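Follow-up to my earlier ticket, as requested here are the two runs.
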Amino acid sequence: MVWFEYKYTTSTEIIKNIKLIIDFSILEYSILAFLIILTILMIYYIIPIFSISHSYNELEEKIEEKKEMLKQIMIQKDINEEIEKELNIH
């Protein structure tokens, strides 16, 4: 390979290139604070809200399924009663 060269990065070079928090500008501090606040909000508020709404939706679906089953049972009962009436009349 004529055009490419791979250079290993040592740990001292990595440590030299790391920017310390005390060297941050005001913009970088504000971005860091925003990300920390966003993370805290996600952990304590946003993710639990999605979890609760998901649980609520599952519960609503189960309730709707039960209502549908009850409707089907009532229809079947009505059909059976009609059949019994027809059989008793004749």
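Run two:
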Amino acid sequence: MIKLSITPIYYISIILPFVSVIVCWIFYYSMHNKYDGRIKTISETVLYFPETRIFGVGLSIESVFVFVLILIRNTVASDLSVKKNIRFPTLQLFMKIGLIAIPLGIFSLCTITLLDNAPIHLTGAFFFFIGSIIYFTISDYVLRKLGMNISLLSFSVSWLALGFAILYMTLMSMQKFLSAGAIFQYITSLLIFVKLFLFQYDIPNHNVQITKNNKE
């Protein structure tokens, strides 16, 4: 039996999007930025080459890691639910939907820009931001009810992300506060990836086990 550590995936899941966005900003603000007196959202800074390619590749890889991390979390919740005979059918259904919707949202928003197709891009952003936050709050509740010790930090990050997401969406709807809305978008994004990193501390130590069958 071979045991593979999952820990590197948690670190990549927080480092990769951060590095991708920073590199995109470097190119955008040095090559394409036309100052109009406001701070731009992430989506507005990845409209052109090479930013669009960097963002697309980086976040596409991230979507795979997010899928893996959510799958692990869902599997732990499912196993505990069976072991303790405690069922949350509706909530666990939402968790299963999140397994597909969140990575798909990341993939859509990073591969299809606002210039390519704004409705698809914004739909992907919705599934990423709102889908992630709904998933966080529901999975925190389910795991707590199943006996997992969700730390105060991890629990707080879920609700902080919700609060900043509401502020972000509210301010972005008002012309005078677009810069503030963009800042809150950055904070919301950071909190989402911090929460993904904290997933590892919400459940027991885990790894991937590969069993080799010896055929005689």
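The only thing I checked on run two: The longest strand covers residues 2-5. Let me know what else you need.
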